[in-house]
Design goal:
Number of strands: 12
Strand order of the largest sheet: 4-3-12-9-10-11
Radius of gyration: 26 Å
Largest sheet: 6 strands, mixed
Mean pLDDT: 90
Number of helices: 15
Low-confidence stretches: none
Distance between the termini: 93 Å
Strand content: 5-15%
Helix content: 40-55%
Shape: globular
Structural class: alpha/beta
Order of helices and strands: HHHHEEHHHEHHEHHEEHEEEHEEHEH
Oligomer: single chain
Amino acid sequence: MKTHRTALWLFSILAVLAFLPMVQEHLNWPRVKALAGVHEEVPFPQLTLASCRSGAYQRELENYLQYHYGYRPNTLRIYNQYLWDFYKKTYVKYSIVEGKEGWLYEPWFVEDYYHGGTYSEHKDSLTLARDLNREALLIYHLQNVLEQHGITLFVCMAPGKDLVYSEYLPENDEPERAVEFVARDYFEERFNQLGVNHINMEQWFMQMKDTVDFLLFPQKGTHWSNIAAVYAADSIFHYLEEKQGIRMNQLVIGEPFVGPYKKPDYDLEELYNLYWPLKKLPQHYVDVSVSPVVGAVKPKLITVGDSFYWNICRQIPMDSLFAEYPYWYYNSTIYYDDNHNTTEELDLASEILSADAVMLIYSSVQLYKMSNGFCKKALIALGHEELLGSF
């Protein structure tokens, strides 16, 4: 009898284990944490007589089930953890480069530091210089046009992790390839020549790194750390006040403290999709609030830029500082705007003229994509297409 009960219990346990993935797959219960990274969605195939007879439906269904079975994220994390613990292998070796002392970098940052900007442009240095000069002139002309309407256009050049913490980069595996061209140096010189409004945070971060007790870039992340983004935002807002001749409500930054890691300070580690978190250096954070100022102005700021701006938007109480603050991500998808989803939907001229300021914010490796065509489109929309023929 005891043997019979034991067999019954074992059978019941096996039955539950066998059907539990099916329950999770169809009911999404219990909920499991999704895998990090970008994934192409595999749709459920449509059953037709033709697809069934040709075998296409069966192949598509098999492919669908490979990506949608129950507990898939958990099983993949366990397998990834096994590969990492025993072989130090990962499926994202082309997306992440491990530097010294466990520091992680995106490969394009490493490439840009050692070999310059032509790596992604597939252009020679002269052609790239011509293209960057054209963009610098577009910014200059648009700045002058907007100034006539009382609108401030300025550029914020954010430093890359490779510049601030170059000592942890992996060794250059192609030493014969010299640095051909660096956009950040070109833009800095050209902006100064033209008088383009800009903030270059590279040197500031390089100096600050040796005077503060916290990391400006997290060991396992690619963007400036949350705490560094707060201090960068404070500088941006003061710069905007100076250029606009206004007084905004004031950002109040608390004392740094070590706290549990917050997104996106471990965004590179997330891509490993491991079951257990990696050991990391302590990360500091600050509490942020806004102090009201009598007679303060809340301007409308349009921001066109890359993902470095996310760390600012997610921590700063922007509603207390700005009347509106739409974020045109790579001049494409729009965030923090209830009326628009993409820049294609905009009446560009009226939207720009409704703003008090426009900021272009790009990190060092994205400077080659400066404005993502925004300046050219803006000049055309504002009726100054003749300026495009001046260079």
